[in-house]
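Milestone 3.1: sequence recovery, worked example.
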């Protein structure tokens, strides 16, 4: 039996009876019949029929259209209208009432049944749709962290939202109603940089009817920026517009987590790559999960082996590199079998490398999920340990030897101080005690077995120098200023000495001056020699001026000054070397070794201080040897310098005694005398002399005048070489006979040369090319040569090409 029940609403009783008969004939159940709209609404509530057949034109205050609307609203029942005609205004009213069908009189069974079945089906579908929409709305309003939406882009490009769930307000702070009213507001909230990308993705989705899937940033109403993920599937509607059903989710936290994860991964990778150890990570199945570059370099693993991520294949590749591959394989198998243990081993490679291997299980949630391998190349460390072990056997012997050498060096130092008349001292500012070397006691005449105080030291100062010396000491003590001062002292026997004193403040860890360390040199003889030399120089200048030897005297003074400079430098070097104490370091080292005598080997190998002992001893030995050699060399320089002074003075005395007298002289001897007078300058300027001497007979000549000319030519050559700046400097000196029976003396240099326009005026009075030149050296030389019947000439190929000066001398008087 058909369960469908129908309520008939018809004000014509005959028509109502006829309609009831037809319905029964069609198998429907008649729930009831009424003639008014008001009764129809009441019966619909009470009887709940499956469907109502309602006449549109009902008598009474409520017609069929109004009654249908009330039933639809209150009971949600389908209504099929009965109409006698199809007038347009009436049908339009019926559409407003949302009728489910129309049956026109006269009623035909097939049409009546079709309309009833269609109405029932449409109503059921409509109910399911409304229930689905209700579920969708409930789901959308409760969608966690997101919203559901439906929007349409019409053919004219206008955007319209058919539905937006309340979740949109949780994401962006904007209500669903506002979005429905203003569809463009969501696009306006997209961050400007992301809009082109979102628009392009939406356009592609509409054009190709593919899924719209896009992550982008949107601003909330408060201005905050959030990441959202929108996904929607398009479908084309009958009118050609495109509809998207989709969801949008707040993925801000996910993005933040992803960024944090990137930072963490980046930090982990940087950590892995910055370590000097090779690292390898393997899971429980033997798959390589990660490694660093150092690991590949250590094992020389090719990229294709690592690309397979197979730990077993990697092991097979590296076995050939090891001295004991079986032991390594056994250890790996044991660790994989016992996944929760740690391990340490030392691997020795065939190429001589030594690598320490560490292995720890990787734990996750209390379970071992893999294993981490660490490989450290300790080859250099092992080699150093072996080297230190070799040092251990011979160390004590080496210490004894170096101690003996140190004592010898101290003896040499004491001897050097006596030779140089140099003593060292230390003034303790707190105790006012003065400690010094034996030579210091000898210089001041102090008794060796009695302590010296600052008062005793002050008492020995010459009253004329007392204030300046004590002011220097005070500045060193208070302001930390070093000092260098010459002063006089008076000994107990009344004698007087002149000394040169150097003092340096000794500052403690708090920045306070605790002592003054320095040296004192007895320069009495030196000062006497200076005064004698000054007097000699004065006489020499007078004699030179009277005898026409000003140029030679200048050269002599220059050479004497250079020799004195060398003497002073040697003295200063000896002073500086004496200032540096050495015995304290040896004493400390000996005490350190004695403290660890019972376990000396372990101390020298494992203790950081002990490992430095061999290097300190070697360095100390080398230092003492070098210092001894330097002191002997400087003492020899002092001896040579004093001898050189004597030679220069003797040579000048010899020439001064023969001024203006013709002598039979050796030309080669004259040239060598000029070289000796300029030897200091030649040495200082690193000038190499090349001699090209042909045999020539002696000549009768004014030796002083020739010497003046040659000294001036040599000095000009040195200055020309210095002006050019070349490191390789040399002068060629030549002697050759001339056709007239005289001789030629050539002075050739590779210096700055002479420009062609300067050759004609180079011997003119007052002409010079140097800012410090006086312009009469060459002029005087040319005149002197002419007075002796000779000639002075010059030849040069131009600037930068060097020059050759030639002095032509006659064999006898002109």
């Amino acid at each position: 039996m058909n369960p469908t029940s129908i309520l008939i609403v018809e004000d014509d009783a005959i028509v109502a009876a006829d309609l009831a008969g037809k319905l029964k004939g069609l198998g429907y159940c008649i729930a009831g019949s009424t003639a008014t709209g008001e009764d129809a609404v009441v019966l619909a509530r009470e009887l709940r029929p499956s469907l109502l057949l309602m006449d549109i034109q009902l008598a009474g205050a409520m017609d069929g259209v109004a009654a249908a609307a009330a039933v639809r609203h209150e009971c949600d029942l389908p209504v099929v209208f009965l109409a006698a005609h199809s007038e347009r205004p009436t049908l339009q009213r019926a559409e407003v009432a949302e009728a489910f069908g129309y049956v026109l009189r006269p009623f035909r069974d097939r049409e009546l049944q079709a309309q009833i079945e269609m109405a029932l089906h449409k109503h059921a579908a409509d109910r399911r749709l409304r229930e689905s929409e209700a579920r969708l709305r409930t789901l959308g309003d409760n969608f966690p962290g997101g919203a559901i939406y439906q929007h349409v882009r019409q053919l004219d490009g206008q955007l319209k939202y058919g539905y937006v769930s309340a979740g949109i307000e949780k994401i962006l702070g904007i209500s669903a109603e506002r979005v429905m009213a203003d569809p463009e507001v969501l696009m306006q909230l997209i961050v400007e940089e992301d809009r082109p990308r979102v628009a392009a993705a939406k356009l592609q989705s509409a054009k190709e009817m593919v899924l719209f899937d896009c992550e982008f940033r949107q601003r909330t109403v408060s201005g905050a920026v959030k990441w959202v993920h929108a996904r929607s599937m398009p479908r084309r509607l009958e009118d050609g517009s495109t509809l998207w059903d989709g969801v949008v989710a707040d993925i801000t936290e996910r993005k933040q987590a992803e960024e944090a994860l990137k930072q963490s991964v980046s930090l982990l990778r940087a950590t892995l790559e910055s370590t000097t150890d090779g690292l390898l990570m393997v899971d429980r199945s033997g798959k390589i999960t990660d490694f660093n570059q150092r690991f590949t370099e250590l094992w020389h693993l090719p990229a294709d082996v690592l690309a397979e991520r197979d730990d077993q294949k990697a092991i097979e590749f590296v076995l050939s590199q090891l001295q004991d591959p079986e032991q390594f394989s056994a250890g790996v198998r044991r660790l994989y079998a016992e996944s929760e243990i740690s391990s340490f081993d030392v691997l020795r490679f065939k190429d001589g490398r030594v690598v320490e291997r560490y292995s720890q299980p990787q734990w996750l949630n209390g379970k071992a999920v893999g294993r981490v391998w660490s490989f450290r190349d300790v080859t250099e460390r092992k080699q150093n340990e072996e080297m230190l072990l070799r040092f251990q056997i011979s160390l004590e012997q080496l210490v004894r030897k170096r101690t003996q050498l140190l004592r010898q060096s101290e003896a040499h130092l004491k001897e050097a101080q006596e030779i140089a008349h140099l003593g060292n001292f230390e003034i303790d500012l707190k105790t006012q005690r003065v400690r010094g070397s034996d030579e210091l006691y000898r210089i001041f005449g102090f008794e060796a077995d009695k302590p010296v105080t600052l008062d005793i030291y002050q008492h020995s100062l010459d009253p004329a120098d007392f204030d300046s010396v004590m002011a220097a000491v005070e500045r060193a003590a208070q302001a930390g200023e070093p000092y260098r001062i010459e002063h006089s002292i008076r000994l107990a026997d009344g004698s007087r000495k002149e000394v040169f004193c150097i003092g340096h403040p000794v500052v403690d860890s708090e920045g306070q001056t605790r002592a003054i360390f320095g040296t004192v040199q007895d320069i009495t003889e030196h000062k006497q020699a200076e005064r004698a030399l000054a007097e000699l120089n004065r006489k020499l200048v007078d004699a030179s001026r009277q005898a026409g030897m000003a140029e030679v005297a200048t050269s002599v003074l220059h050479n004497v000054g250079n020799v004195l400079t060398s003497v002073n430098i040697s003295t200063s070097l000896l002073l500086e070397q004496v200032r540096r104490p050495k015995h304290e370091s040896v004493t400390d080292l000996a005490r350190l070794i004695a403290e660890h005598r019972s376990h000396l080997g372990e101390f020298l190998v494992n203790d950081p201080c002990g490992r430095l002992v061999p290097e300190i001893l070697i360095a100390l030995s080398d230092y003492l040897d070098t210092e001894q050699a330097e002191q002997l060399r400087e003492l020899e320089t002092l001896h040579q310098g004093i001898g050189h002074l004597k030679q220069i003075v003797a040579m000048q005395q010899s020439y001064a005694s023969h001024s203006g007298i013709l002598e039979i002289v050796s030309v080669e001897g004259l040239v060598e005398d000029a070289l000796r007078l300029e030897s200091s300058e030649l040495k200082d300027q690193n000038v190499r002399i090349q001699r090209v001497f042909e045999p020539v007979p002696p000549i009768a000549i004014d030796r002083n005048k020739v010497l003046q000319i040659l000294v001036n030519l040599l000095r000009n050559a040195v200055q020309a070489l210095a002006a050019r700046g070349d490191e390789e400097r040399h002068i060629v000196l030549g002697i050759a006979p001339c056709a007239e029976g005289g001789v030629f003396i050539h002075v050739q240099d590779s210096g700055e040369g002479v420009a062609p326009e300067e050759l004609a005026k180079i011997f003119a009075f007052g002409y010079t090319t140097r800012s410090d030149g006086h312009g009469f050296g060459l002029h005087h030389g040319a005149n002197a040569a002419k007075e002796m019947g000779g000639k002075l000439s010059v030849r040069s190929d131009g600037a930068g090409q060097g020059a050759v000066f030639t002095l032509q001398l006659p064999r006898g008087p002109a």
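The longest strand covers residues 225-236. Residues 145 and 250 are 5 Å apart (CA to CA).
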